[in-house]
Amino acid sequence: MPYPSRYWQALGTRDFAAARDSGLAAQTLAVLPLAALEQHGPHLPLGVDAVLAQGVLDAALAQLPPTLALLVLPAQNVGLSTEHLSYPGTLSLPPATLLALWDALGEAVARAGVRRLLLFNSHGGNVAPMDIAARSLRQRLGLQVWRCSWPDLPLPAPVRALFSEEEWRFGIHGGAVETSMMLHLAPETVRMAQARHWRSSSQDRAERCPIAGNGKSVRLGWMIEDYNPSGAVGDASAASADKGRQLVQAAGQALAQLMVELQGLPLPAGT
Question: In Gene Ontology terms, what is a biological process of this protein (predicted)?
């Protein structure tokens, strides 16, 4: 491999100096995993998003060509989770603090001579600040920055068909998808005896309101209890470890392909 390890913290300062001086750093893709520590209903632990991000990332790294110049930064497992603050145990950073943290990490990437950065995310509340951070780092430091949330990765039709389209759309928190992945990645943390089918209020709006309920024309500024008082939505009772295994592997394969594509793209002029 171009580096002794895929992980940023495993390298020494001489490794980074050599990579900068040889031009390897400028060809490297840095990956910043972003997650959250927040409630996921009565059946799942707070660390769901962190576990899923690492699981998909591990699956991707196992499928990368050994010659690919890629480094994974330390995972940032506390994100913007204000929509879950009504539930005990949830951790969340203020938006300004979160943006300052990601910006500082981007500065460190740039100082190391790395010009490409992928923000890899597993939590919906991080999407809006990721957009702000990506543009800020591009404008201020000249970094080429992308953002990707694992649920947006393309999946083969047989894998997507493991869950209904209704579950993909409405089971966004602690439903069959996340519970299946947790049954595969961390089964000892899942309390399936507490798993239920929690209907989302967004399903009611979708049935009643062609515009307010279509999920595209207008967005609700929501707290999770607006969807279901349990703090979860979706059919967690339909989860299985085998579904989770297939989903993690497929998402990892798509992420690995994305990493190869991004590392091979030309840098913008002036970077």
Answer: riboflavin biosynthetic process
* 34 strand-pairing partners: 76, 121
| Structural domain of 245 | 8-264
CA distances from 63 to 57, 117, 223, 258 (A): 10, 19, 37, 12
Does the residue 269 lie in any domain? no
CATH number at residue 163: 3.40.50.10310
Nearest to 41 by CA among 187, 220, 228, 202: 228
% helix, strand, coil for the chain, step of 5: 50, 10, 40
Contact 197, 233 (CB under 8 A): no
- Under 8 Å between Cβ of 37 and 46: yes
Alpha carbons 232 and 177: distance in angstroms, whole number = 12
Please state the length of the chain. 271
- Give the count of domains, the chain: 1
Which residues neighbour 1 within 8 Å (Cβ) at sequence distance 6 or greater?
66, 67
Q: Look at the pTM and tell me if it is higher than 0.85.
A: yes
Render pLDDT for 13-34 as a digit per residue (tens, 0 to 9). Answer: 999 999 999 999 999 999 999 9
Encoded tokens for 7: 């992980």
- Residue 270, pLDDT > 70, answer no
CB 189 within 8 A of CB 49: no
pLDDT in tens, 123-169: 999 999 999 999 999 999 999 999 999 999 999 999 999 999 999 99
The backbone region for 88, taken as left when phi is positive above 0, alpha when psi lies in -120 to 50, beta otherwise, is beta
Distance, in Å, from the CA atom of 34 to the CA atom of 75, rounded to the nearest integer, reads: 6
Confirm whether 220 is domain-assigned: yes
